[in-house]
Amino acid sequence: MTMEQAAEAFAAETAYWREVRGLSKRALAAAMGFDPSYVSHVESGRHKPTEDFARRADEALGAGKAIWKRWCDYEAAKARGGRTAPPAPRAAAEQPYATGSALVVEHDAARLDYDGRLYRLTMRRRLRNTGTEPVTRYLIRISVDRYPGEPERSNAHYRTHPLTWEELALSATCRGEAMRWEAKHDRDAFKEIWLLFENDQGRFPLYPGESVWIEYAYSVGDEKWGRWFQRAVRLPTEHLEVQLAFPTALDPVVWGTETSMTAEASPLRTAPVRRDENGTRLFSWTTSTPLLHARYRLEWRFRAARPEPHTCDRELT
User: Fold this and answer.
1) In terms of C-beta density within 10 A (0-12 exposed, 13-18 middle, 19 or more buried), how is residue 309 classed?
2) What pLDDT score does 306 carry?
3) How far apart are CA 246 and CA 115, in angstroms?
4) CA distances (Å), 6 to each of 75, 76, 216, 284, 307, in order?
């Protein structure tokens, strides 16, 4: 990456974790001991990343070194004098979400089902390889936060009750073939995973000019999933949709916000569409050609739900 691309990735990472934790820019600046406008300047690109900012932001947001890693990428780009890095080895691109990536998401569809105890997320993406090399893996993220806006409380909860691979029960397929996967980062409340275009029977790379659907799914109990779900646009995307499915008996209500690199969070421009069928209340929301690094956050509450016990800690995805 160039310095400009690395700085943009650092700003996007900071904004992502700030929003995951439910903090305003002013609140994060206060937690870090900075002037209220400083975080805004970093996220907008007016201030370049610094080591001090990266350390404080990563600690304040409990980002598991994700922000620190972006600063290291920036320093590496700066050491090269802003020159483009040498080409990565074939089939080993480490920056699938960088601006200018060869991958384009033609369609991104997320469905979150809740049965009163367990959340099950199913993601379907149609990927197109617009580059010149085969794509052999795809990076996904799983992050949970039961107490948005209370990072210390969430961090303490996950240290005691970390998110485990066993409970996630992650599965992935492509063209009807099971996809092998391997962990890139394994934190208490944050996972990064490479989905590999291969399995025990062979390999099936995504070649230049081809498009393919991939699907992956995982589960998280409601003791580790907060009542919000966020979609971050990390690759050029043509169409994005989200569907939430809750038991009608819980009388769920849903609302949402959107934000970008240059704008504060604001209400979604269109409301989620609601319908009831067979004891399930479905909320659907879609958008076309979203901005790169835009984030769409849906939140909900259950008007018929009993109050949660004060002694029980919880989380999100």
Assistant:
1) exposed
2) 59
3) 7
4) 9, 9, 28, 34, 44
Handedness of CA 155, 159, 161, 163 (dihedral sign): positive
When pLDDT is cut at 50, 70 and 90, the band that residue 164 belongs to is very high
Kindly report, residue by residue over 84-102, the tens digit of the pLDDT: 444 433 333 334 433 344 8
What are the two backbone dihedrals, phi and then psi, of residue 179, each rounded to the nearest 5 degrees?
-100, 130
Amino acid at 75: E
Residue 280 to residue 285: CA distance in whole angstroms: 16
pTM for this prediction: 0.75
CB neighbourhood size of 257 (10 A): 17
